[in-house]
Design goal:
The complex is a heterodimer of chains A (587) and B (641). Chain A has 587 residues and is an alpha/beta fold. Helix content of chain A is 62%, strand content 10%. Chain A folds into two domains: 313 residues, Up-down Bundle (ABC transporter transmembrane region fold), CATH 1.20.1560.10; 225 residues, Rossmann fold (3-Layer(aba) Sandwich). In chain A, helix 2 runs antiparallel to helix 3, helix 2 runs parallel beside helix 5 and helix 9 packs antiparallel against helix 10. The longest helix of chain A is centred in the N-terminal third of the chain and has 50 residues. Chain B has 641 residues and is α/β, with parallel strands linked by helices. Chain B has three domains: 343 residues, ABC transporter type 1, transmembrane domain (ABC transporter transmembrane region fold); 39 residues, no CATH class; 233 residues, P-loop containing nucleotide triphosphate hydrolases (Rossmann fold). Chain B contains 20 helices and 16 strands. In chain B, the strands form four sheets. Chain B has a six-stranded mixed sheet with strand order 10-13-14-7-15-16, sandwiched between helices. Chain B has a four-stranded antiparallel sheet with strand order 2-1-3-4. In chain B, strands 6-5-8-9 form a four-stranded antiparallel sheet, with helices on one face. In chain B, helix 4 runs parallel beside helix 10. The longest helix of chain B has 54 residues. Classes of the chains: A alpha/beta (587), B alpha/beta (641). At the A-B interface, helix 2, helix 3, helix 5, helix 6 and helix 7 of A face helix 3, helix 4, helix 6, helix 7 and helix 8 of B.
Chain lengths: 587, 641
């Protein structure tokens, strides 16, 4: 796991190493400073000789300046390294996600991917920063300070033999027992926040049923539960403060007592007043570093969770691979399903698609009809190899889709997804997704075919109109037509519309289909729809129910042979044409 | 990464930090009137106790000086040991104080946050729907996720360490001037310099933090958009282009982050080393004073001597160390204050007003038609209407007669969205609203249950002006099913029971059967005990709507509002639901809003709305015969968008 993360440092190795060097420099000087100050004090003590004071003073000043320079520089290089590291991790995750197949995308929800790329990376960045600054600084400081203390204080330093183990044990004990408690609390806390979100989202339901008091009680109970757990954890951590103080005080009392005894017994021969001062400073430094280390320990274990989640994405293998010697050209728009069985996950009990055998000639118009959950979308998603079949094979242009170069295949099979999206950018930017080199004429032509040109032209900025994120500033019907135009720009051999005209009125819908017939006769058109009207003049209509193709035929034949088809037809001819079904097929 | 206080980004009026902090602290006092003073006492005591050692140090050193050349430890012992014992005594007391306050602080912080959270949540429940319609949910959430968290550090760490540092600084300051005013002045000059430096760096860092925050927002937005549209990216083989666009945003973020952190990181070392430099300066100046034989100015009247300079040096360390500590907390304090300000803003938000006094009661109708109030569920309700004039109470049987009379309304005062709307819904009638998005269909239902209050006109419920009815009772008498289905975390059963908390399992199942939901619920892995999470994301949109309908059915309300309640259910299933609903609503008033005209076709009255006006009204057959807008919609010549 750490190896995966380390790979992300890349071009920021230099600032990382520089940071470490600067920090070590800072530490060395910081440790020497008390040594010099002890000299200074002793020289003052021995009767003030100004030249002595100035000499040590100047030395000390120089050291402080170097330490300042080191510390400042380390601050900069550390910021550079950690920001760069985070950038690389973000880059890598994004890149990995780009290689994901639909199956991988289904596995990670959008929000979990977003959290991984934001919160988790922040945690890791913070830990990285801590690691190259504090985690280097603390042990070095600790070691140097202990060494210096021994050089200087001799016997006085022996108190550390007692203090350090006590503090280390104490801190370890505290953080060991507090950490699981914190982890539990944070999970509960996240849950609480989720329930608040739920409440805010459902405020109309809450108020509609006058459930305000009920919600308050529910929340108060959850909040109290968290308070109890949190308090327990926090009180454990709060033990660190007195523990630390005990050690500091013990050190002080010890140094004063033993120090004064040694000075007086030896008449200041081995150590002097200055050393007492220095020992106190070292003691403080050593204990502070231990405290630091325990903090780092906690921080790192906390971010281990984030690292794990990031690595999950980085190490996710794409479910769909390019073949060894890919076929680079799609001959025509014919599609064939041969004994196809499909399920979304290996452990699923039931097939989402079972025993599908279909032959669609190139250039045909095919309609697919079926209720929510009948696997219409699943069926068509196998054609551009968004998923791989579990058993059997799907052929396009007479070749198994698994033998094609993926990009070649997908450029020939244009699909307008049911849950379709426009991206923030101008209408032109969005259309260019279909073909980056498309000329204005081509775009207008595609939009005319999709019946989008008229309303686009009516916008003040025309094709340069800016689409907001999620396409919120165009209506559902307009969005659908732009998505169709975008797919048309690919000049595909097969065009798949997955319930893509549900928000378009019947008249426009008919115009779109008429356009297809006239201008792209060679393209195979596969249309999933809720409205019988959208498919009834197709060359072939596939009726699906529960993952099985129950009937195939023309409109008139199906009215005779398929009960489901007839039922739907009757309901709709009695009702209205304006239907908008948006059930999620994959749910 | 550290978040910048939001008020530095937006143009919201700033309440002063001190005022906000004052209020936060006052609240803490209010919650814990006994513990807070105890804690403060303990903090002050332990802080003073930690400043005192310098004093003892000076005494001990003076003793050492005195005895050093004699080499007589036995003699010196008499002087030194009692002082050290005294010191240890102080330490013990100080540790007791520290233990006490740190434990109390941990307890209080969590209690404070929990209470504040409940405060916020309770107040939020009482806010009008308008608030939720006009605030982004993400923003409301950040009160709970970010702002409260900033307070945690503020209360548990920043405030105690600020208080501690202040006490130590003051104590040390007094000890210093006790020894020497001159040296204190020198030190003060240095402290001024340190303050100046940290404010300069702080400003620089704040500037870059703001641009970092902007970059963060941009990057998160981009990530959100692409992750959400990842399938589209795949279908269009757009991976490389997305990567290129992302890298551009990512690089910018990296640059801004670098700058912001670079400033913040270097503040610590700079302040610390300025402290070291101060140390040298004090040593040199002290030495100079000593040599030049300059007369000391001090409270103690002590002359310059080594006994003064040495403890003074250690105090310098302590002093600058504490300033460093405060400068480390400044960010947290500013952020905490900004968080508190937002939390208070939510708490101060005006709650929904309710002056209603007519209440809903279970009723019993005697043979002679007199209505009496009863505690049991009779499936009959009455409006209890107390009259203040003569103290009498009248009962009106709840029948579900709703009339809107010349209603005008606008979400904003100057933008009217409903004009002169008049609707009569007789008990048992099914009234449908049809019209394009934005025509005002949902607005009408928002007015009936008083999510919003009308600007002009009257709405009467069984002849009573709805302004007189207590809101919770009014809403209890209206069941609503909305297009956007919201389910809660919990089992399917719990979700249905939300409609009526005392419904039995059997009643819930019965409601599910009516709603046509029973079949699929039984097919779920745990049936009615299946846990729903994440707004029921393990169900399809249509299934969620069926549960929402069951939820409304179990409430058994006299009047029902169905706002696109079946829009995600396919036409075959809808027909089944429709049958159940018709059985349920027999004899009750129903308002239906639907996009799909097959849903509204069998209504008693259909209102066609256009731009906030009712342009056509009548039954399906009548409207078809009129060949107006409804006819065009029905034949599909118009797009309902």
């Amino acid at each position: 796991m750490l190896k995966t993360m380390m790979k992300c440092i890349r071009e920021y190795k230099l600032p990382t190493i520089l940071t470490i060097i600067f920090i070590i420099g800072e530490v060395v000087i910081e440790v020497i400073i008390p040594f010099i100050t002890a000299d200074l004090i002793n020289s003052i003590n021995k009767g003030v000789v100004m030249s002595e004071i100035l000499k040590t003073g100047a030395l000390l000043l120089a050291m402080a300046l170097v330490s300042l320079a080191c510390g400042g520089m380390a601050g900069f290089t550390c910021a550079k390294a950690s920001a760069g590291f985070a950038k690389n991790v973000r880059h890598d995750i994004f890149k990995r996600v780009q290689t994901f197949a639909f199956k991988n995308i289904d596995k990670f929800s959008t929000s979990s991917l977003v959290t991984r790329m934001t919160t988790d990376i922040n945690n890791v960045q913070m830990s990285f920063m801590m690691l190259i600054r504090m985690a280097i600084r603390a042990p070095f400081m600790l070691i140097f300070a202990v060494i210096m203390a021994y050089i200087m204080g001799g016997a006085l330093a022996s108190c550390f033999v007692v203090v350090i183990p006590v503090l280390v044990c104490g801190l370890l004990l505290v953080s060991r027992s507090a950490m699981p408690a914190f982890r539990r609390v944070f999970k509960k806390y996240d849950k609480l926040n989720e329930s608040v979100e739920e409440n805010v989202r459902a405020m109309r339901v809450v108020k509609g049923f006058s459930r305000e008091d009920y919600e308050k009680k529910k929340f108060a109970a959850a909040s109290e539960d968290i308070r109890k757990d949190f308090t327990r954890a926090e009180r454990l951590v709060a033990l660190n403060t007195p523990l630390m103080q005990i050690c500091v005080y013990f050190n002080m009392a010890f140094v004063l007592l033993i120090g004064s005894r040694i000075i007086i017994s030896s008449k200041g021969a081995t150590i002097d007043v200055g050393q007492i001062q220095a020992m106190l400073t070292y003691g403080m430094q050593i204990l502070m570093q231990l405290m630091m280390l325990s903090m780092i320990y906690v921080m790192l274990t906390m971010s281990a969770e984030s690292i794990k989640r990031i690595c999950e994405v980085l190490n996710e293998e794409t479910a769909i691979h390019d073949p060894e010697n890919p076929v680079m050209e799609v001959a025509d728009g014919s599609v064939e399903f041969k004994d196809v069985n499909f399920k979304y996950s290996e452990d699923a009990q039931k097939y989402a698609l079972a025993d599908v055998d279909l032959k669609i000639p190139s250039g045909a118009t095919v309609g697919i009809i079926g209720g929510t959950g009948s696997s219409k979308s699943t069926l068509v998603q196998l054609i551009p190899r968004l998923y791989d079949v579990t058993e059997g094979e799907v052929k396009v242009g007479g070749v198994d889709v698994r033998d094609y170069d993926l990009e070649t295949l997908r450029n020939s099979v244009a699909m307008v997804l049911q849950k379709n999206l426009l991206f923030s950018g101008t209408i032109k930017d969005n259309l260019r997704w279909g073909n980056a080199q498309a000329t204005d004429e081509e775009m207008i032509h595609a939009c005319k075919l999709a019946q989008a040109d008229e309303f686009v032209q009516s916008f003040p900025d025309g094709y340069d109109t800016y689409i907001e994120q999620g396409g919120t500033n165009v209506s559902g019907g307009q969005k659908q037509r732009l998505c169709i135009a975008r797919a048309l720009l690919k000049k595909p051999k097969i065009l798949i519309l997955d319930d893509s005209t549900s928000a378009v009125d019947t008249k426009t819908d008919a115009l779109i289909r008429a356009g297809f017939k006239e201008y792209i006769p060679e393209t195979t058109k596969i249309i999933i729809a809720q409205r019988i009207a959208s498919v009834q003049d197709a060359d072939m209509i596939i009726v699906m129910d529960n993952g099985v193709v129950t009937a195939v035929g023309k409109h008139d034949e199906l009215l005779e042979s398929s009960e489901i088809y007839r039922e739907v037809y009757e309901q709709q001819t009695n009702g209205s044409g304006s239907d908008d079904e948006r059930g999620d097929e994959n749910a | 990464m550290p978040r910048m206080p939001r008020n530095m980004k937006g143009g919201r009026p700033q309440v002063s930090i001190f005022k906000t902090l004052g209020r936060a602290i006052k609240m803490l006092f209010k919650f814990y009137p006994v513990l807070v003073p105890i804690t403060i006492g303990c903090i002050i005591f332990s802080a003073v106790a930690s400043a005192i050692p310098a004093f003892f140090l000076q005494k001990v050193i003076a003793d050492i000086e005195k005895w050093r050349d004699t080499g007589n430890w036995a003699g010196a012992k008499e002087d030194i040991i009692p002082k050290i014992l005294l010191l240890i005594g102080m330490y013990v007391l100080s540790i007791i104080a520290i233990t006490a306050w740190s434990q109390i602080m941990a307890y209080m912080t969590q209690g404070y946050l929990s209470k504040l959270r409940c405060y916020m949540f309770d107040d939020m429940q009482d806010l009008p729907i308008r608030y939720f319609d006009t605030h982004k949910h993400g923003d409301i959430m950040s009160y709970y996720t970010n702002d409260i968290d900033t307070l945690r550090q503020l209360i548990s760490q920043s405030l105690p360490s600020l208080l501690q540092a202040c006490v130590i600084v003051v104590t040390v300051f007094f000890i210093m001037i006790y020894y020497s005013i001159w040296l204190t002045l020198v030190l003060m000059a240095g402290v001024l310099l340190m303050t100046f430096v940290s404010s300069v760096i702080g400003k620089g860092s704040a500037k870059y933090f703001i641009s970092q925050q902007r970059s963060v927002g941009k990057t998160e937005g981009f990530i959100q958009e692409i992750m959400n549209g990842q399938k589209v990216v795949k279908v269009f083989c757009h991976e490389e282009q997305s990567q290129k666009d992302f890298d551009a945003v990512n690089d910018e973020l990296c640059e801004n982050m670098y700058k912001a952190h670079a400033f913040a990181n270097s503040l610590g070392p700079i302040i610390m080393n300025l402290g070291n430099i101060m140390y040298v300066i004090i040593a040199v100046v002290g030495g100079l004073f000593l040599i030049s034989g300059m007369s000391n100015l001090s409270i103690s009247g002590l002359a310059f001597s080594i006994d003064i300079i040495i403890p003074f040096l250690s105090m310098t360390k302590q002093f600058t160390g504490n300033i460093n500590q405060v400068s480390q907390q400044i960010n947290a304090i500013v952020m905490g204050a900004a968080g508190a300000e937002r939390v208070f803003a939510l708490i101060d938000e005006k709650p929904e007003e309710d002056n209603g006094y007519v209440t809903l009661v279970n009723a019993k109708v005697a043979a002679d038609g007199t209505i009496t109030e009863t505690a049991e569920r009779t499936h009959q309700w009455a409006w209890k209407h107390p009259h203040t004039a003569d103290g009498s109470v009248t009962y009106t049987l709840l029948e579900g007669d709703v009339t809107l009379d010349g209603v005008d309304f606008g979400y904003e005062p100057d933008k009217e969205v409903l004009h002169d709307v008049t609707v009569y819904a007789k008990p048992g009638q099914k009234v449908a609203f049809v019209g394009a998005t934005g025509a005002g269909k949902t607005t009408i239902t928002n007015l009936i249950n008083r999510f919003y209050d009308i600007a002009d006109g009257k709405i009467r419920y069984d002849g009573i002006n709805i302004n007189k009815i207590r809101k919770s009772d009014l809403r209890k008498s209206l069941g609503i099913v909305l297009q956007e289905t919201n389910l809660f975390t919990g089992t399917v059963m719990e979700n249905i029971r939300y409609g009526r908390l005392d419904a039995t399992d059997e009643e819930c199942k019965q409601a599910a059967r009516l709603a046509g939901a029973h079949g699929f619920i039984m097919r779920l892995p745990m049936g009615y005990d299946t846990e729903l999470a994440n707004n029921g994301s393990n169900l399809s949109q249509g299934q969620r709507q069926l549960i929402a309908i069951a939820r409304a059915a179990v409430a058994d309300p006299p009047v029902m509002i169905l706002d696109e309640a079946t829009s995600s259910i396919d036409t075959r299933t809808e027909a089944i639901v429709q049958k159940g609903m018709d059985a349920l609503m027999r004899g009750r008033t129903v308002f239906v809003i639907a996009h799909r005209l097959s849903t509204v076709k069998n209504s008693d009255v259909i209102m066609v709305l256009d731009h906030g006006r009712i342009i056509e009204r009548g039954s399906h057959d009548k409207l078809i015969a009129e060949k107006g807008t409804y006819y065009q919609l029905y034949t599909g010549a118009f797009e309902l968008e």
